[in-house]
Amino acid sequence: MDIRAILMGLAFATMWSSAFTSARIIVQDAPPLTALALRFLISGLLAVAIARAMGQRIRLTRAQWAATALFGLCQNALYLGLNFVAMQTIEASLAAIIASSMPLLVALANWVVFGERMRPLGVAGLVAGFAGVALIMGDRLGGGVDPFGLTLCLAGVLALTFATLAVRGASSGGNLMMIVGLQMLIGSAVLWVPALATETIAVAWSGKLVAAFVYTTLVPGLAATFTWFVLVGRIGATRAATFHFLNPFLGVAIAALLLGEALGAGDLLGVAVIMAGILAVQLSRQAPRPPPAR
Fold first, then answer.
1. CB within 10 Å: which end of the chain, N or C, has fewer?
2. Residues 15-64: pLDDT tens digits?
3. CB-based contacts of 244: which residues, under 8 Å, 6+ apart?
4. Backbone torsions φ then ψ of 90, nearest 5 degrees
5. DSSP three-state, residue 143
6. Residue 132, Cβ neighbours under 10 Å: how many?
């Protein structure tokens, strides 16, 4: 992993983690599904325009089309749609912590469903990571968190896990920016259906809302997604996923800094345990280095 990959990974983790704070700001003053559908429409059109300027065209294989559609549905429509609705009643820090368990769920699925070999370090990481998530959720439930919002976040992270398992098929073969734009447009198209059917367009306009919407459209929406695809193409999905261990800390830190969300001792302990668990799982999945030649 070279310095460029490290910087890309740090940038991705920061952008990804900041999305929960900007989303929390948006859903307090605008209908969540409508705002998200509009965000994906704008960012998707921008991505397609940039891709065409880069010489990319809509020339995807059948497998790429299937993976791109699946990624757009599961990550953009389901995961983010459920989280945007949930964050009307739960804090950004809790949503970030739950979403940060995705690498643990991916590792568990690879182990149990796909038969990937898991080293003892990885097993210990899974146990620690899920214990950290359980610690935080138990503490928050005791403090009166909205159970419905929590359930939506849990359903969302399952959708994100499924999307992550499909990302390699979507990003292989080039045309990265075009694929980013297409999966956003797919997410937008899906989200407009429930948005128009269930939501009333009532927006409390403010400079803070506009700034949060522009930021989430361009940075977590467009820049972070493209950075992730490039990073996966550069160092592989397993090594790229190592940077997810930063998300629990960055997610709660940004929410505390910008939104003033309070963090208890149980939250801090749980975040530390989750980070250690994610890091252990990802390190256990790294291919061992060959012994030096004699």
1. C
2. 999 999 999 999 999 999 999 999 999 999 999 999 999 888 888 788 78
3. 13, 100, 102, 103, 278, 282
4. -120, 160
5. coil
6. 25
* 203: CB partners within 8 A, 6+ apart: 29, 30, 31, 209
pTM over 0.90: no
Rounded distance, CA 15 to CA 8, Å?
Answer: 10
| 189: Cβ contacts below 8 Å, ≥ 6 apart | none
pLDDT in tens, 136-193: 888 777 777 888 999 999 999 999 888 877 665 555 556 778 888 999 999 999 999 9
Neighbours of 271 (CB within 10 A): 26
Q: For residue 155, give the nearest of 88, 228, 195, 101 by alpha carbon.
A: 101
With residues binned 3-state (H G I as helix, E B as strand, rest as coil), the percentages for the chain, rounded to 5, are: 80, 0, 20
Tokens of 12: 């991705």
Instruction: For residue 14, give the H/E element and its range.
Output: helix 3-27
Residue type, 7: L
Amino acid at 181: G
* pLDDT over 60 (residue 119): yes
Domain limits of the chain? 3-285
Other beta carbons within 10 angstroms of residue 114's beta carbon come to 8
Q: How far apart are CA 10 and CA 247, in angstroms?
A: 10
Helix axes 147-171, 176-198, angle to 10 degrees: 150
Q: Flag whether pLDDT at 291 surpasses 70.
A: no
The tokens describing 58, both together, are: 């809509």
Contact 45, 156 (CB under 8 A): no
Phi, psi dihedrals of residue 194, rounded to the nearest 5°: -70, -30
